[in-house]
Structure formats: structure tokens, C-alpha cells
Amino acid sequence: MKNKIQATQKERLMRDNDFIVSKTDLKGRITYANKIFIDFGGYSQDELLNSQHNIIRHPDMPRTVFDLLWKTLKSGNEFNGCVKNMSKDGGFYWVFANVTPSYDSNNKIIGYYSVRRKPSAQALSVIKPIYNEMLAAEKAAGSKNATDAATQLLSEKLQGVDYEQFILSI
Ligand SMILES: Cc1cc2nc3c(=O)[nH]c(=O)nc-3n(C[C@H](O)[C@H](O)[C@H](O)COP(=O)(O)O)c2cc1C
What we know:
Beta-Lactamase; 6 helices; binds flavin mononucleotide
């Protein structure tokens, strides 16, 4: 379904007190979405439940960021990052996301949980041009080498600081 949506320039802005929340199973299928998630995404709860979380993926996002997200989560750590998401009508909204693994009583990961809040203007002004360059590097490198190329570019941009540290510092 998401591939048929034409991206538009209509932006939705998070408010200071908004929290957009979702939960997924181990495969990234949505098991919970709060009302603000539904308001921003434009999908009904029925459309969201059991759908892959990439239902709101925006084509402007470098896939390397999601690679990093999944690597971080699967190693048991939490991920923080800026993400541009796409609504059902093709509009977009930027979030600052905190994504964490959920554990059962045997310390086994049983799903994931994300809380998103309004990103700072400062963070967005820094991250947008970096994502644009990463996306261009991915396209130029071709599918097979996309992530290597964008990862290399990111590490040059951040001069040795990792993404997590960087995003929390801006
Ligand atoms: C808890 C959780 C929250 C996520 N939130 C988002 C999100 O807000 N936007 C997004 O594009 N991907 C999100 N993802 C990542 C998606 O599962 C997916 O990896 C990403 O959209 C890239 O999709 P693709 O691999 O089909 O290109 C989330 C994943 C998890 C586990």
C-alpha cells in the first residue's frame, strides 16, 4: 500500500506536549498505536494493527538509519534518532524517536516500543542535510553497497562520534 502513496510537501508539526507511541512484535509488526500516532499517520487503528511499521516509512529517509535502528535494538540497546515519517495522505512529519526492546521475565526480547516527541529545530537543521547526503550516497552506490556507502559518509561527517552520541548532543 505504501508504495502507491505520492509524497507531498504537506508538513504536520508535533506540539511540545505530544508523544507518539507504538509497540511492535519482534518482526516490526505494529501491536499498539496511541491516538496521536493515528492522528499524525492518518491510518485507522485497524489499518495499523499487524501492519509492518514501514507503513509510515518516508522515501526521503536513508535506509542506513533503519539498519542502525535494527542492529541497535537486536543487540539489546535503545535507539535514539530523528525520523521523517509519511502520513497516509503523502504528507510528512519529523519526530525524535526513542526505541527500546521490551523484555520478558527471562530477559528475552519480546517486542519493541517507541516513544516520539517533537524534534528540536536545531537537531533538524543539522540532520536534514546529512540525511540528504546519505540518501544520495545510497542511490549512487546501488542497492548492494548502499548501506556501506552511507555508513562511511556518516562516519566522515560525524568525525568518529557515533550516531547515538551525536543525535543526543544536537
Ligand atoms: C518500535 C519500532 C518503531 C519504529 N518506528 C518507525 C517509524 O516511526 N518510522 C519508520 O519509518 N520506521 C520505523 N521503524 C522501522 C521499520 O520497522 C522499518 O525498518 C523501516 O520503516 C524501514 O522499512 P524498510 O526496511 O521496509 O525500508 C520502527 C521499528 C520499530 C521496531
